[in-house]
């Protein structure tokens, strides 16, 4: 599968999801990018903006298994990963897999679970496996965690630690629909939910093939330096107590390659980097105490960095070998 085929796959998913989700084309593209780049997504928005519906629509479009987990303070790690139980009929222990054994997992209101339960996601998000009673179990392919949290309600929540946030490729916001989109949503759901009629348009095997091929997208040495300069600038910014980690530069590179691939290009452009910088890096920057009170402060830090670092001129690609 070349980048042209990857673009066709992305277009098929995008078109299918649009039968259910009105607007939000950029969010849909970012979810496709996350799937290709083996990343995960944190959706931060108020209830009722379509987060669950979007996750289900994407899962159906790629013929993937979908599981939803409602995170609560009493949720245990074993409720996510599964347990070994004694089967009296067989006279032996059996493994009962938890909801993490799916292709797309919606971790609803993830910040309502205790840190212990939140930390149980670290291994599965990074290594696509879970270890239970000394046994390692592989998770599905593809595997995407879409976690949600409400930015308004803070009572009874446990903020995600930096190590957890660093596992998410993107932090996104759905946002409210426009007036025209709101009318279109009401008309679309007036009779029945279009999600029920949605059918798969690609297979998980096609997704896995695309994941193997998107890394062939070329990135010039100048653009690699541009990415690294942006990441390093987060560590020196006066409003940042802790800058983006080395993992961030790898995440930014993968996101930019995947973005170029779904647009049918075999090379990354500076505009790809600019588009991916905020959703990839903003949640990875820990701000100083006074800045944390401003909702858009982290995004503003990344935007200010983008405005000060010179953009490399378009030149012929330089081999990374």
TrEMBL record:
Pfam families xrefs: AAA_3 (PF07726), AAA_lid_2 (PF17863)
Domain ChlI/MoxR AAA lid per the UniProt entry, residue ranges: 233-303
Family matches, as SUPFAM superfamilies: P-loop containing nucleoside triphosphate hydrolases
Claim: S-adenosyl-L-methionine is one of the keywords in the record: no
Alphabetic keyword roster: ATP-binding, Nucleotide-binding
CDD domains per record: AAA
Start and end residues of each ATPase AAA-3 domain: 40-170
InterPro entries, per database record: ATPase_AAA-3, CbbQ/NirQ/NorQ/GpvN, ChlI/MoxR_AAA_lid, P-loop_NTPase
GO molecular function, one term: ATP binding
UniProt similarity note: Belongs to the MoxR family.
Stated name of the protein: MoxR family ATPase
């Amino acid at each position: 599968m070349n980048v042209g085929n990857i673009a066709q796959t992305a277009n098929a998913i995008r078109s299918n999801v649009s039968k259910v989700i009105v607007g939000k084309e950029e969010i849909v593209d970012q979810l496709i990018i996350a799937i290709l780049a083996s990343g995960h997504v944190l959706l931060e928005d108020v209830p009722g903006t379509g987060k669950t519906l979007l996750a289900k629509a994407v899962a159906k479009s790629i013929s993937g298994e979908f599981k939803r987990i409602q995170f609560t303070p009493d949720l245990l790690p074993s409720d996510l990963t599964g347990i070994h139980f004694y089967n009296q009929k067989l006279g032996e222990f059996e493994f009962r897999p938890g909801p993490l054994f799916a292709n797309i997992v919606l971790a609803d209101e993830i910040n309502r679970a205790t840190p212990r339960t939140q930390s149980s996601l670290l291994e599965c998000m990074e290594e696509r496996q879970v270890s239970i009673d000394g046994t390692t179990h592989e998770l599905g392919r593809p595997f995407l965690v879409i976690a949600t949290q409400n930015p308004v309600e803070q009572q009874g929540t446990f903020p995600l630690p930096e190590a957890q946030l660093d596992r998410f490729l993107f932090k996104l916001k759905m946002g409210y629909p426009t007036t025209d989109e709101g009318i279109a949503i009401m008309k679309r759901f007036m009779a029945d939910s279009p999600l029920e009629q949605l059918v798969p348009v690609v297979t998980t095997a096609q997704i896995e093939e695309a994941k193997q091929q998107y890394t062939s997208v070329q990135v010039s040495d100048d653009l690699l330096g541009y990415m690294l300069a942006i990441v390093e600038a987060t560590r020196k910014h006066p409003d940042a107590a802790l800058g983006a980690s080395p993992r961030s530069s790898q995440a930014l590179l993968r996101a930019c390659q995947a973005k170029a691939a779904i647009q049918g290009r075999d090379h990354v452009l500076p505009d790809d980097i600019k588009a991916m910088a905020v959703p990839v890096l903003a949640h990875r920057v820990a701000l100083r105490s006074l800045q944390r009170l401003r909702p858009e402060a982290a995004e503003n830090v990344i935007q200010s960095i983008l405005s000060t670092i010179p953009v490399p001129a378009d030149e012929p690609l330089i081999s990374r070998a």
